[in-house]
Amino acid sequence: MRVLVFIFLIVFTSTAYCQSADVRFNVNFQGFTFEDGLDDKKPLIDESVLTNLNKANRVNVYVNKSADAVTEAISDNMDASDVSTWELYNTSKAGTPKYTITGALNSVNYMKFSRGGYKCKVNFTIRIIDLKTQETVSQIDIESSEAPVEVVKSAAALSAIKTTSEQQIKFFQDFFSLRIGILKLDEEKKGQVKSLTVIGGLNNNLVKGDAFVVKHISEINGFEVEEEVAFLKLSEVGKATSKCTVSKGGEKIKSLFEEQNDKSKLICEYKKKK
Length: 274
Known about the structure:
Layout: H1 2-17, E1 25-34, H2 42-55, E2 59-63, H3 67-76, H4 84-93, E3 99-112, E4 118-130, E5 136-143, H5 153-162, H6 165-175, E6 179-180, E7 182-189, E8 192-198, E9 211-220, E10 223-237, E11 242-248, H7 250-259, E12 264-270
Parallel strand pairs: 1-2, 1-3
Antiparallel strand pairs: 3-4, 4-5, 6-12, 7-8, 8-11, 9-10, 9-12, 10-11
């Protein structure tokens, strides 16, 4: 019996330890609206934007139509018999999605060639909406570039949409900063953290020398409040985790790291190079 209790405590502690591993925003993908006659292109555009949102690797994506539905979907992802699902559930439990991704297909134009075949030009708008204020916080109009001639219109439309992938990914990565969590504190001196390990590395295209701002995020009356508390620089980059030196705020990191809970957490946000 004691052995079983000990094993349970190990599993529970390990799971709790990993709750801050994924500190990305949760976003709700709502899908696109279309002008009359363009409904048949909905699956192509939705799939393209959803795929590129995932490739941008900045957010947790849920495909639902409302904040309540997304919260329910997160809860449904928890399987008591599968420990790997606990982290997703607990990580997301602290709050509802922050943004909705939606947009509109504006136009689809075809050029028919005398020798057969079609080229296509597609234009659509992607919007990022703040779920609390319902305001559009960012948007972009995207137009396809030169696409190859295809035998049928449906293939031409798909080829045109594929040419927009890089624009989409850049838009998402520019808006959603790379956010990673702190795995553990490595070295302390006189009450200050001198080095630590973060959850990110080559998988996130990080390189030695990259800098991060450490932010303390707390929830006050349902709103998230961010405070910059420290600065890091990558000293060793691994595949999934990396070592960092703390250039400022070591004392603050130590106290806040030990106090993290459902309404308070530390995140490391990538500082873009100027």
